[in-house]
Specification:
The complex is a heterodimer of chains A (262) and B (265).
Chain A (H helix, E strand, L loop, with lengths): L1 E5 L2 E3 L20 E3 L1 H17 L2 E7 L5 H10 L3 E5 L9 H15 L4 E5 L10 H9 L2 E13 L2 E7 L4 E7 L2 E5 L11 H9 L4 E2 L1 H4 L35 H14 L4
Parallel strand pairs in A: 1-4, 1-6, 4-5, 5-11, 6-10, 7-10
Antiparallel strand pairs in A: 2-3, 7-8, 8-9
Helix pairs in contact in A: 2-5, 3-4
Chain B lengths: L1 H5 L4 E4 L9 H17 L3 E4 L11 H8 L8 E5 L5 H14 L3 E4 L26 H11 L5 E6 L5 H13 L4 E6 L5 H9 L5 E6 L8 H4 L11 H11 L4 E5 L16
Parallel strand pairs in B: 1-2, 1-8, 2-3, 3-4, 4-5, 5-6, 6-7, 7-8
Classes of the chains: A alpha/beta (262), B alpha/beta (265).
Chain lengths: 262, 265
Amino acid sequence: MKIVVCVKQVPATNEAKIDPETKRILREDIKAILNPFDHYAIEEAIRLRNKHGGEVTVLSMGPDKAVRVLREAISMGADHAVLLNDKAFGGSDTWATSYALAKAIKKIGEVDLVLCGKQAIDGDTAQVGPGIAAHLDWIQATYVMEISVLNAHQLKVKRMNEMGYDICLLETPAVVSVVKGINVPRVPTLKGRIASDRYEIPIWRPADLGADIEHLGLNGSPTRVVKTQPPAPRDTETKLIEGTPQSCAQSLIKELRLRNLL
Amino acid sequence: MLHHIENKIYHVEILPPKQDTEKLSADLALFADKYNKALEIGSCICLTDNAMGNLAFQGTEVIEELNLPVHSEQIMIHLNTFHTLEDLRTILDTCKKIGIKYLLIISGDGSDRLPKLQSTDLNLSNAVTVTSVELLHYIHHEYPNDFILGVAFNPYEPPEHEFHKLERKLKAGASFIVTQPVIEKNEIVGQMLKLYPSVPVIIEAWMSKKLHLLSEAVGYEIPETTEFDPVETLKTLHKIYPNCGVYLSLLSFKTQFDLLNETWI
């Protein structure tokens, strides 16, 4: 099974600042990390490969320093990594990003499964996975909490919905976004880290992908950010419960029940 | 462990390199340098396990990768509950293979990125969460006679609760105790020593000048401006607790290490 995992480098904090002019995140001076949800996608890909054979390629689009998250994926056990890096990619919204990633997936070739984390913690859109599926015209499943390989061309997935979950059969090739809880992502070993430091990550430019430059960057991005503002602070109240441990516990249960939390 | 106290062997804490380091080679070289220095003067090297929830490489894998010598009486590793069962077994099997016998079993500090042992992993029917007590039980049962297990004692927690926990830890197989950092005579530590006169106790000495970093551990605010002389405090601790071992946390290898030979005499 040939699996591609799409990952993103994101700011380590949810308190990242926004440029008031461009409405884009000011990424300088903020520690960058692998998008936390992508750990689950990488882990799932490695598990599927270990069980059914094949290879895992990790793919990202971003600045030079995004190689760090690709190296982290290699240190977890991915086989290959590719970075899409060029000024022409800068300013891409989710549609232009998914176009570029889809082009790269086509270039990799003969891919059976594309895995993504359910969303990135910076934009929180959850659109890139479905966007890739749209550009490739492949079947997709989002919010997936379990993947089983039925045969070489068919997957069974369990996906969360508002009421519970759906069981879906997917013909490959397919795009699947996974949720936290689908697995427990492994922590890289020292051997894995040393191997990842030695791995040479290929950099692909738009021309390598055969991508139409008009579909990339700001030109290829239909999204317009009109206004951004921080959410209003929560109006919270702290209530101190005093008494014996037993009476405190009883009072706490009562309060939680009154708020329909129990 | 008694042998460490009788022979005035310091426990020297060394932190393995962090996972997110950008200078891995340099960090590994520094680790090896500290390890070899501590080994050479006869100290017991204590390797942390993702201290403060920060992802770091395991001491066992660093030792193997760097091919460092292991002297069983001179090494102790911390082991906490933030592992998968597979990783836990790998660590324990490696310890057994390379000759590490002292383990300090702690609940540990987690983080979003660290897995947590589940009660089902350890086949526990009577526990919901895995704490150091359950981990002790497991190691004691699965690796009988392979390890000498120690536990932490926190004199800043409510005493009744902490003594109850300590009793459970000792019943679960612990045979030595390491305290949280102590900077002066501590009444609760005194009570613990009286209660368990035959259990070897290692007092943790805070070797950083930044005493305010201990605020969270001790449960009250220590001002940043507080002046603190770690080496003088260490000498005082030896006088107050002459029958205890000493664990040196945050020891400076540049400024304090060379003083160790003349401190515990």
